[in-house]
Amino acid sequence: MSAARAGGLLSGGRVGIGAALVLALGAAPFVLPPFQTIQLSYGLIFGIAALGFNLLLGYAGLLSFGHSAFFGVGAYSAAMLVKYAGVTSMEVFVLAGVFFSAVTAAVFGAVCVRYTRIFFSILMLALSQVLWSLALKLFWVTGGTDGLRVPTPALLGGQVAAAFGRAEDKVAFLSYRYYYYVLALFLICAAAMWVIVNSPFGKALQAIRDNETRAEFVGVEVRKCRWVALVVSGAFTGLAGTLWVPLNGLTTPDILYWPFSGKIVFFVVLGGFRTFLGPVLGAIVFNYLETYAIGFTVYWQMVLGVMLVLLVLTMPAGLMGTLAPLVARRRPEPG
Amino acid sequence: MPLLETTKVRKWFGATHAVDDVDFVVNPGELLGLIGSNGAGKTTLVNLISGLLRPDAGRIVFDGVDVTHQSVHERIREGIARSFQLVNLFDQMTALDNVALTIFARQGKTRRLAALADRDRAVLDEAMEVLQRFGLESKARMLAGGLAQGERKLLDVALAYALRPKLLFLDEPTSGVSTREKAPIMDIVTAIVRTGGITAVVIEHDMDVVFTYSDRIVAMHEGTILADGTPDEIRRNEQVTTTLIGTAVE
To answer: What is this structure's pTM?
Structure first.
């Protein structure tokens, strides 16, 4: 953990690859059709959720089957602000989504973090399904199965629209302005999460994951660290839900239902939970696979399932966990 | 005043009386050897004092504070640290990271989310200093899981030492290492303990080690204390000789 090694974490090669990826993402609206840019927005949003989820799974060793709750709370926070307060500001949505999902995670954490393994997973699942049933049954508040609509929001207090000085259709908005909004928040989230996992707190989480008893005996406050990790994880996932709802235009109880939690688990497993960016790659790839499988056949769940099983069987370390060592091996030796 | 005093501490596992109303005292500055055959209750007693187990009855007072119902974390803050019989490290981290994490925890910095661990020079320097004391500086960048058994034993003790304890429990620090490695390990550990003014309790099966390095020895048998005295007194104690030592120590 020396300064030299810290420099190593941000080595020239990594910075170069990172800069190239950011440039490529920045150029996407100019080279891709709107449909593809919107798909990329979905992928980046799911990537934020996957980053949050992986703080628990990859770094703290806790498998949650209840993250749909935080995603849903983020989405419903925005939708309810529209319906009951007439708010259209995206920044207010983001603040509310992050706040309420963090509070939800704090409450879940108070119950769940004293448990680990399957007990933690099942408790998270059970609590998330309480929220799902509330969203379903309190239809006079939540719209029930019809859900709640979220129209095009105002970005940066309407300054973005004012700067352009002309109205544009929803597709153009989502594939251009909103895409950049999502990209900016994605980059902020990725940077923030990178700092968190490399902080003393992040090291403590990894210690808890690898050897909980010893972590306790070197003075790490195990439950407190787990609780904070769950709150941060919930806040990231809630932010993703808030960003997702204007893109989707509607939120329904489906995003609080357990299969959506399973989807988040799959993003992370598919990309590789032992790598930092693997979950993001998993989220983007999963979104594309799902989108194209739906367009390809009515039996898309079966096709998607078979594809995912094959991917997991052939790449047990996930896409990033498999590809990164191959890329490193192909890189020429210095000198 | 003793540094540690247990009064009628008890831990039963069903019909097994692992620790049975034990009164145990550790005085400041001493290096105490805790001996006994397998199942005598040595490790259970240490588990009760360090907080890994809760006693069924009795009282544990450390440095004037009743720690009987305190959490592990609170006892560490009071100054109780321990190493483990089976080496207990963070195998996926380097030796340096293992020690640095302990220092972060001691300083309360594991609550910090917005600072890079690798940039904390003071902690890294202190961690390297700890490794140097244990002769492990050349292994700093190696994963703990890749170290030799003797080095892992030393690193295990180093983690406990990095907490700057007042009382250090060393649970079989030389078990699983070759006979040739035992003396160097104990030399390093006892030198660090004595120069650091740390009170230490060494649990050991190897009687040569215990009798060579201890100021005082407590012998346990079937959950109770069989004898308590200097190495010479214990060596002459007939009960201990017949029950625990046999003819091994002349």
So the answer is: 0.85
CA atoms of A302 and A150, how far apart (whole Å): 31
Handedness of CA A249, A254, A259, A265 (dihedral sign): positive
Q: Does any domain span residue A72?
A: yes
Helix (H) or strand (E) holding A185: helix A178-197
Say what the ipTM of the complex is.
Answer: 0.84
- Asked which of A75-84, A138-147, A296-305, B237-246 is least confident by mean pLDDT, the reply is B237-246
Tokens 């504070």 -> residue: B65
Chain A contacts of B159, Cβ < 8 Å? Answer: 214, 218
Residues 85-104 of chain B whose Cβ lies under 8 A from any Cβ of chain A: 88-94, 96-97, 100-102, 104
Tally the residues of chain B.
Answer: 250
Asked if residue A96 is part of any domain, the answer here is yes
Residue A284 has pLDDT above 70, yes or no: yes
Would A323 be classed as within a structural domain?
no
- Beta-carbon contacts below 8 Å between A and B: 121
> Residue B99, exposed/middle/buried by CB under 10 A (0-12, 13-18, 19+)?
buried
Q: What is the pLDDT of residues B22-51, one digit of tens each?
A: 898 898 989 999 988 888 888 899 999 999
In a domain, A61, yes or no: yes
* The one-letter amino acid at B174: T
Q: Which residue of B has its CA nearest to A208?
A: B90
| Tens digit of each residue's pLDDT (9 = 90 or more) over A128-153 | 999 999 998 888 888 888 888 888 88
Residue with tokens 């959950």: B223
Total count of domains within chain A: 1
CB B177 within 8 A of CB B149: yes
Could you give the CA distance from residue A292 to residue A248 in angstroms, rounded to a whole number?
Answer: 17
CB contact under 8 A, A207 and B124: no
